[in-house]
Every structure is written in structure tokens, then in C-alpha cells.
Amino acid sequence: MDTASNIERALLAELRKGLTAEDSPLLRRVLRNNQIVLHNYRIEVIKDCRCALDGCDRSFPLILIPNQTLYPKYCRVHRSEFRREHHKSQRESLRPKTAVER
Ligand SMILES: [Zn+2]
Predict the structure, then answer these.
(1) Distance from the alpha carbon of residue 50 to the mean position of ligand 1, in angstroms
(2) How far, in Å, is the centroid of ligand 1 from the Cα of 79?
(3) What is the pLDDT of residues 65-100, one digit of tens each?
(4) How remote is the CA of residue 17 from the centroid of ligand 1, in Å?
(5) Ligand 1 centroid to 45 CA: how many Å?
(6) Is the Cβ–Cβ distance between 51 and 84 less than 8 Å?
(7) Separation of 60 CA from ligand 1 center, angstroms?
(8) Which of 38, 11, 42, 41 is nearest to 27 (CA)?
(9) pLDDT grade, residue 101 (50/70/90)?
């Protein structure tokens, strides 16, 4: 997708300038739901990735695509902001559990 690769180019340019999500609105917006994975794979490679949400131990397959650096950072369950907020409020209202509920 052209739009996606344009965003990636802009992101990488900002990272190269040494900007972080704190001083770049673009980085902040994109990194809310995504992570940047720098790789040199020439073919698609599937990696196991852990959900970035605090308290979620699920892992999910990340398909690394050549020349693509932007990938989701949450498991399928937590891709939507609503589900993440729900997860957070549940964590705050419940005592910590030893086992992950599914
Ligand atoms: Zn998750």
C-alpha cells in the first residue's frame, strides 16, 4: 500500500532525526497501535510477538514483510482501543491474578 509506505518513510525519517513519540505527533499517533520492527528479511518471516499490553501474556504471530517496518503491537484481542481500556479497568478493579484468564 502506498499510503502505508509513505507513512513508514516519514516515520523512519523522524526516527533518524532522533525524535521520539514525545516530540513527534506522527510517531505518537502511529506508535499507539503499532511497533516498528527493523529487519532485513527478503522473504516473509513469521515471528512470535508478545502483546504490548500490560498484563496480557498472549503472543501472536507477526508476519514480517520485506521492506515493511510497521506492525501491530497488540494481540488480536487487544487491537481495539476499547478492548484495551476494558482490560485496563478490569485490572485496576481486580486483584492481580496468577493465571491469565482466557
Ligand atoms: Zn493482548
Answers:
(1) 8
(2) 8
(3) 999 999 999 999 999 999 999 999 999 887 655 666
(4) 31
(5) 21
(6) no
(7) 9
(8) 11
(9) low
Average pLDDT rounded to a whole number, residues 15-44: 94
Query: Contact, 76 vs 60, CB < 8 A?
Result: yes
pLDDT of the residue at 100: 62
* Ligand 1 center to 51 CA (angstroms): 5
Task: Report d(CA 27, CA 12) in Å as an integer.
Answer: 9
- The continuous run of DSSP H or E covering 46 comes out as strand 45-50
CB 72 within 8 A of CB 62: yes
Q: How many CB atoms lie within 10 A of CB 12?
A: 14
pTM of structure: 0.79
pLDDT at 72: 96
Ligand 1 centroid–CA 54 distance in Å is 8
